[in-house]
Amino acid sequence: MAVVVCGLIEWQSWNVALILFVIAASTDWIDGWWARKFHQVTKLGRILDPFVDKVIICGAMIALAGAQGSPIAPWMATLVVARELLVTSLRGMVEGQGGDFSAKQLGKWKMVLQCAAVITALLYLRGAADVPFWLSTATQVCLWGAIALTVASGIEYILLVLRNSKSKTT
Prior knowledge:
CATH topology: Four Helix Bundle (Hemerythrin (Met), subunit A)
Radius of gyration: 17 Å
CATH class: Mainly Alpha
CATH architecture: Up-down Bundle
Number of strands: 0
Largest sheet: none
Number of domains: 1
């Protein structure tokens, strides 16, 4: 669905892109909830779930950064992609050594705000000729909140890895 959403953004099909993005984000959340509730968490799922999260968020951010009049600047999409690549690398390193690199609360809230930022940006672009003040404000709040949590959660994961690697060497 991520590739379709990105194509729809490029073709400025804001409404369909919005609907498919909401479906993709919702099914990702439902899948995670289901796996935890019914004790169906698997190693493959622990790898694929964050991968799918990154594909949909990074793809949408990159596509939106390229859209004319978008509230998402290219540096914002680059920051999101860089954080996601870093955390994925750290996850691979830690779990490759037998450690646990489960998502932390800050990372989960980061994903919520990133999804909200994409949704509000799509709504913003949908009405680009006449964006109401509330939507412009909501878009900026979600976007800057997502950027702040992207940085903060990235730092949290870096510190976690540094603390764990330090305690193993002493």
